[in-house]
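Retro notes, item 3 of 5
We never archived the inputs for the adenine complex last cycle. Fixing that now. Sequence and ligand:
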Amino acid sequence: MTLGIIGAMDEEVRALRDALVDPAPAVVFGSPVIRGDIDGVEVLLMRSGVGKVNAALATVALAHAGATHIVFTGMAGGIGAGVHIGDAVIATDLVQHDVDVTAFGVQPGQLLSESMTWQSDPPLADQLARAFAVATANMDVSAHRGRIASGDQFIASHTRAGEIAEQFGAIAVEMEGAATAQVCTKLGVPFAVLRWISDTADDAAIEDFPLFCERIAELDLAIVRALVGAVRD
Ligand code: ADE
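Structure as it came back at the time:
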């Protein structure tokens, strides 16, 4: 296995970058990739930048560089019942909440001749769930499995969060995962998405999110170390 890891922001990949053994930086399709080793597993690490287009490009670049499996990690806003700050959401599937071609008779979130949702790889998502259990053994947090909605919007409105939850049956919002999901599905690369809940996408999100940024680097490293342990054994 060569594990591709993507995070959108520097805060989300910083600790992972520092943990890579024998790091070898390269640029693939204009995107900086670092090849290295974490606890005996080859890792390709990329900071994609924020948003769906950046995530799509990073995913193509990682697959081209040889990633056999791709995990997107980082932060999300929790919009499902019982999804609290500090919990995690592991995607069963992902949808693009900002896509609207309904004038042509397709579902909200669906592009013409495309699926509405993109399923993550069940075995890889199961491994992430086991990794979460190991990484958070001493913490009072939960991992929720469910749909993640992605869009090129930071959601900071209780009303809008509720609309996305209801319209798409999503339990978390972020800005990249569905793009990686769509690209990985088309390329035949197994993928999974784990997001730590930094805020609840409501009017307090703009204060909660930067506070959580201070914690995310170590949480992302903990989950990847536990995942590497699970896939290696
Ligand atoms: N990532 C973390 N919190 C988010 C939010 N509220 N909206 C979109 N992306 C996010």
